[in-house]
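Proteins fold. Shown next:

***
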Amino acid sequence: MQMNTPSRSTIRLTRRGRLALIATGAVVAGTAVAVPLLVMGGDENTRPTSLVIPEGWRATQVYEAVDKALALPAGTTKKSLAKTDLKLPNDAEGNPEGYLFPATYPLDEKTTPEQLLRAMAETAHKKFNGAPIAAGAERNAMNVYQAVTIASIVQAEAATKDDMGKVARVIFNRLERGMPLQMDSTINYALGRATLRTSTKDTRLDSPYNSYQRMGLPPTPIDNPGEEAMRAAIDPTPGDWLYFVTVKPGDTRFTADYAEHQRNVAEFNRIQKNSASPAAK
C-alpha cells in the first residue's frame, strides 16, 4: 500500500528528530552539542598518552584530533590517507568515513597518523564484520556497509541511546515505503557543518547526501558510529513509526500518524516559544 507523506514544502525532519514547519520559511532552532577534543594523560608540556575518539565524530574531526594529539601541522593526517592501506570494504572505495571506530587509542613518542588510522579501521573491521553484525545485516536484506551507513544516521539523529532503535525503525519504515529520509544530518554532512538550523534553500541542495531530494541511503556513512548505533541498525525496535520529534529533553515522540505528529510539533513549538528569553524575541 502506498504511504502518503506531507509535502516537502510543509514538513521536514531535522537532526535529533526535531521537526520544523517551513511553509513560511521559519525554522525551529535547537541547541547543538559541541564535543571537545578529548586527550588523556598529558598536560601543556607533555604529549598525551591516549586519544579518545567520541561516537559520532566525522572523519574530518578525527583527522584534526590526530593532528593535534601528535602535534602535527593541520592537514597532515588527512594527507597520510594516500599512503595508508586501510582495511575497508569495497563499497567504501577508499573513503574511511564510518570505519574510524570511536574508542580510546594509546599514544607514544613514535605513534604516527598512519598507525592510528589503521588501528581505527582494523577495530571497525573486527567490530562490524563479526557474526552478529554480518548476520543482522543479512537478515535485514542489506550488506554491512549499508548497516554502517544507517548506524551513522542513527548516531546523528537519536537524542538518547534509548531512542536509537526507534530512529532506526523510522529509517527502515521510510525506505520500505519509498519515502525520502528527510534527515537534516545528511545535509549537514554535505555542508560540513553541525547545526539544527536548516533552511528551505538547504533542502534543495544538489548533493547525493541531500535526503530530501535523493531517495534511499546516502552514498557513504555520515559519521563514525558506535556499537549501540550499530546494534540499532541491525535490530531496530519493532514499530510502525514514520515521524519523530523531541518535544523537550528526554521526551522524543514517535508516531505513524501525521496528525498526531503535528500536535507533538505544536507542543514543541509552544515550549520553545515560552522558553525564549525576552532578548531573543
Summary: Strands lie at 12-13, 19-20, 38-40, 50-52, 104-106, 243-248, 251-255. DSSP finds nine helices and seven strands in the chain. Residues 38-128 form one domain. Confidence is low (pLDDT under 50) at residues 1-39.
